[in-house]
């Protein structure tokens, strides 16, 4: 590979990942909270998946969508764990070009799946409140399965071109990224060729997935609120809204970091390194840490299933 100062196109073999700029000497200590958060993510989401799998009473639309959400969050975490802990624990900050593209593809794919599942969950909550008597008849297992497949196919169709476009762009030697994992918005800054098609496609994906999904979630909650206001009793209104609290927390935990990071990457130049790292880690770790905790606390059926599982383990 040629010098980083070269202006000639080169074929990159590796990218350089970064931890927390200015705190390289403290990476071992910083790795402790990261390891703790990763442990919470795998334990929390793994527990959610386990209790939904083994408890037949949880084989209902709401919990099946929750299982999809937990699976997507585990996917995002699994994609980024090797490089994040590699940097903080072992000082390994290099990743091959192909591995970086692969990590970018899977991480963004699982993130897009999260967005699609959150939208499906908002529709689930609307149907449950608007027409509770036909809830199970409308959201049958085949329809839930088709929804999951549709989310995956949409994700693959949108994401497949991105690594292919990047793979064939010329680079001019600069290979240092801004995060401890590979993001498209970060990679697109490195080539010296025409990045316009890849940049336009990336922006289209952000708008078509995160933008449209978030807008439809807002519409769903507008319909939910209108339906709730039509319920005669205050107790009935509160009970209906209370079933949405966990999902609202999941939506906020997901969309606030992801939209903030995307906006900052595109419109804030130069972006302060510490802010960039903090936002990237919030985007990566906050939703999968928070969601299992919120659903375990706020959802009576999940809490009961977890307690029963713990009793069986102790027995």
**Overall domain count:** 1
Q: How can the largest sheet be summarized?
A: 2 strands, antiparallel
Shape: globular
Strand fraction = under 5%
Q: If you consult CATH, what is the topology?
A: Rhopdopsin 7-helix transmembrane proteins
Tally of DSSP β-strands: 2
Question: What strand line-up does the widest sheet have?
Answer: 1-2
Helix content: over 70%
The unreliable regions are 1-9
Report Rg.
21 Å
- Coarse structural class: mainly alpha
Q: What is the correct CATH architecture?
A: Up-down Bundle
CATH homologous superfamily caption: Rhodopsin 7-helix transmembrane proteins
**Global mean pLDDT:** 86
Report, as a whole number of angstroms, the end-to-end distance: 59 Å
Give helix and strand order, one letter per element, not per position.
EHHEHHHHHHHHHH
CATH class: Mainly Alpha
Number of helices: 12
Main location: membrane
Organism: Vombatus ursinus
GO molecular function, one term: olfactory receptor activity
InterPro entries: GPCR_Rhodpsn, GPCR_Rhodpsn_7TM, Olfact_rcpt, OR51/52/56-like
